[in-house]
Specification:
Blueprint: H1 2-35, H2 52-67, H3 74-80, H4 83-89, H5 95-105, H6 116-134, H7 144-165, H8 167-176, H9 179-184
Helix pairs in contact: 1-5, 1-6, 1-7, 1-8, 2-3, 6-7, 7-8
């Protein structure tokens, strides 16, 4: 039971950091796309040529706001879109438009000359971690060494992604994170 309990605490600590990082990511992407959308909502801008699946997710978010009798605002739509939505906006399919605008206006701390895949990879791993936690899959491993290596990768991905977006926000996330203290209490 000790490992089960520890895994639950660790999952909760990671989920908190993932939440902060997701908000940072989605707000930065949305702000970058908004600045390139000439006054119209970025999610209605035909320039982005969203896939059918992406368009459906946007429509579902808009419909959800309407069903809640909430006004449709860009911030409201952004909040209704899942982490998976933002992850897939960073895919190769959207690179010619979304990635270009994000780099032009929204990632001053991302190393120049580094490609889209280098940014998208930690987002992908964080998304998989988020889903793993949401589906109550264990983070613990029978091998403490393998577990530590995997958790170190998660820590690194979360920190580097936040730092590429906003180093001050990354410092704040680090200061409120419980991950290190929970990790150090491994039974």
């Amino acid at each position: 039971m000790a490992f089960y309990s520890w895994n639950s605490r660790l999952s909760a600590a990671y989920f908190e950091v993932i939440g902060h990082t997701e908000v940072l990511l989605r707000n930065r992407i949305a702000a970058s796309l908004r600045s390139s959308s000439s006054g119209q909502p970025w999610y209605l801008n035909p320039r982005y040529n969203f896939s059918a699946k992406t368009t459906k997710q946007i429509m579902d978010a808009r419909d959800l706001l309407a069903s809640k009798r909430r006004p449709e605002t860009a911030g409201g739509v952004v909040a209704e879109l899942s982490f998976g939505f933002w992850r897939f906006l960073l895919s190769r399919r959207h690179a010619p438009n979304v990635w270009v605008d994000l780099c032009a206006a929204g990632l001053p701390h991302f190393p120049h000359g580094t490609n889209r895949a280098a940014f998208a990879k930690p987002v992908e791993r964080i998304h998989k971690l988020r889903n793993r936690i949401a589906h109550l899959e264990p983070l613990v491993d029978t091998s403490a060494a393998i577990e530590a290596q995997r958790l170190d990768r998660y820590d690194s991905d979360l920190d580097i992604l936040a730092r590429w977006i906003d180093p001050d926000a990354a410092d704040w996330i680090s200061s409120v994170s419980r991950v290190a203290s929970v990790r150090s209490a491994r039974p």
